[in-house]
Amino acid sequence: MSSDREKPKAFVIMPFDAEAQPVYEDFIHPTLDNLGFDVSRADNLLNQHNILRDILSSIASADLLVADLTDSNSNVYYELGLAHALRKPVILLGQDMEEIPFDIRSYRLVIYDTHFARIKDAKETFEEVARGFLTGEVTFGNPVADFLGLEVEGRRRSLPGPAEDTTDDRGLIDHVEDLETRYSELTVLLEELGKRTRRVGGLTEKAGEEIEEASSQGGAPGRNRLRKVARRLARHLEEFRVFMADANDRYETAAGAVETSLEFVLEYTGHAAKEDPAGTKERLDSELALMSDVLDAVRDGRQAFLSLYTSMTEVPRLERHLSRAIASAAKEVQRVADNVGQTEAAISRGIQVGERIRSGIGRS
């Protein structure tokens, strides 16, 4: 159906190498295009003699930016810095959480895997964030907004388009209550994940001891015993993987809601501090205390998941069932470690911004 309304513009910042091309053509571009964006990136620009000028112009005129930080490309980080300086909303992409600097992990980051079975999940998350931008249900922060007290520009609500009547209409009380509920969900999930992690860690350790004993036995009896130990551990790991896949889905939903509500509360609090310093300070004290408690739980949980991932990858690949089970379970453990790492970054950032706002209350 034709429309005379201007499409929202999305500009993609990413490397131009051959490996990145399928990510743009099969993942980024079709997802944004299907949502109604006019999508472009730097290699679409015609004037190659003034590429920096054109990139800057494209960043400034875009409604939404997407930056793929895979392989820590210096040009991408430079252009991301320009986007942040211009206070533009940005969706960050990356293939490895550990490559992403901790300070920017909390800014709408989507981790993706190019394996066909995993990229579907990342595409759904990416699409959800981009659609949330269009509807106003997803808000964006950046370091300039956080630490200089300036708002992110380019809010979807000022743009024409079919989603203009579906803007999120929740207020401060709604977001605060949602934060408290989601914090509780994350804490319960982390406790549940911790119990399962300790259990499977114990089973893995026990299997390692049995494998060592069976290996010393030698011959056909030793091989038969090894196979039984390997198959039993494979079954335990597959059960653990199924649980972890479901827990990861639940965690991502709760963590995404935390990110959205936290953005709203931080922005609202920055404005409220000027109108009601005393009331804002009291609210902030309560929120900062709660965030600190959640942050401690998140940090402890992530260390446990990383330790389990290391121990799992060190288990000998004795036979194919065990090898497949280890690989599948390890991917889910890495996924939850990445998810919890993003939560850690988001809450750490929330505490920093909250403390900045609090320290400014009462100053002339």
List the main descriptive attributes of the protein structure presented here:
alpha/beta, 364 residues, single chain, Glutathione S-transferase Yfyf (Class Pi), Chain A, domain 2, globular, Rossmann fold, 6% strand, 2 domains
What do these coordinates show?
With 364 residues, this protein is α/β, with parallel strands linked by helices. The chain folds into 2 domains: 9-158, Rossmann fold (3-Layer(aba) Sandwich), CATH 3.40.50; 172-360, Glutathione S-transferase Yfyf (Class Pi), Chain A, domain 2, CATH 1.20.1050. 67% of the residues lie in helices and 6% in strands. The protein is built from 9 helices and 5 strands; from the N terminus they run E-H-E-H-E-H-E-E-H-H-H-H-H-H. It has helices at 21-34, 51-61, 74-85, 116-135, 143-148, 172-217, 219-275, 277-313, 320-360; strands at 9-13, 38-41, 64-68, 90-94, 109-111. It has a 5-stranded parallel β-sheet, with helices on both faces. Helix 8 runs antiparallel to helix 9. The chain is globular. Mean pLDDT is 85; it is low at 155-165.
